[in-house]
Design a protein that fits this description.
Layout (H helix, E strand, L loop, with lengths): L2 H20 L4 H10 L4 H22 L1 H4 L3 H24 L2 H27 L19 H14 L4 H12 L4 H25 L5 H21 L5 H20 L3
Helix pairs in contact: 1-2, 1-10, 2-3, 3-9, 3-10, 5-7, 5-9, 6-8, 6-11, 7-8, 7-9, 8-9
């Protein structure tokens, strides 16, 4: 890789790590950069998923104790997440390159718009009656298939996963926001991890780029934790939304 490209990737990954620590949505920073550097859509998405997954591991480990009392339900949800994530990754690789090339800017735009609406979802009351997460048998109703569908979406296009899970767990009736956020992190790691396995086995990951991004994401996560009390998250969200809009327009508008 050109040294300038390495610096650009490292800088974008550090910013993404900071964004993920403070507001979420870091993939909206890195994916357009990968596409702008000329990576094919499938390779860009696969490489981005590896970096995103590496950033989720630490958060998932921190949530273990909080979710330990709901172990049975979390285990079932994790299995469904692994299944859906693998299917989504396979669908991404099976989609014709020309279709992905045309759809990717629109997907980035839609993910940006969903990111705009995410706070509205978090602020709403659950859309179904409060659900006790220890009732694992309820997952054999509509909740289980819904989890698989969201996992497929996340495996196919990682940037959309966070917002989709916020909406899903709000619909599930999970009233404790800390538990809902813990599920989003742990199950997001399972979904993304399953898709990463598919991408790796298919040889879709560009490893020099992925490893550079992992380093940047880890550094950015550390900086984000350090800056948590000093940065206005509203400003950060606004900057991220503006970036997603500009990148979408850059890819969609004719040269």
């Amino acid at each position: 890789m050109d040294p300038l490209h390495v610096l650009l990737l490292l800088a974008a990954s550090i910013v993404a790590g900071v964004v993920n620590s403070l507001a979420g949505g870091g993939s909206l920073v890195t994916l357009p950069v990968l596409l702008g550097l000329g990576l094919p859509p499938a390779a860009a998405n696969a490489t981005n998923a590896v970096a995103a997954w590496s950033g989720l591991i630490g958060g998932g480990l921190r949530c273990r104790e909080m979710l330990a009392s709901h172990g049975r339900s979390v285990a079932v949800l994790a299995l469904l997440s692994l299944l859906g994530g693998a299917i989504g990754g396979g669908l991404m690789l099976a989609t014709p390159k020309a279709w992905l090339q045309a759809a990717m800017p629109w997907m980035i735009l839609l993910a940006t718009l969903a990111f705009v609406l995410a706070p509205l979802l978090r602020g709403r009351e659950p859309t179904s009656a409060g659900w006790d997460l220890s009732r694992a048998e309820d997952l054999w109703g509509w909740r289980g298939p819904a989890q698989v569908l969201v996992a497929i979406l996340t495996g196919f296009f990682n940037p959309a996963g966070g917002v989709a899970m916020v909406a899903l767990y709000q619909a599930f009736g999970i009233e404790d926001l800390r538990v809902a956020n813990g599920l989003k992190i742990v199950l997001g790691a399972a979904m993304t991890g399953a898709s990463v396995v598919v991408f790796v086995l298919a040889g879709a990951v560009v490893w020099p780029i992925a490893l550079t991004m992992i380093v940047g994401t880890v550094v950015g996560g550390w900086l984000g934790a350090t800056l948590a009390l000093r940065v206005d998250r509203r400003w950060l969200r606004g900057a991220l939304i503006a970036w997603g809009g500009v990148m979408s327009a850059a890819f969609l508008l004719p040269a």
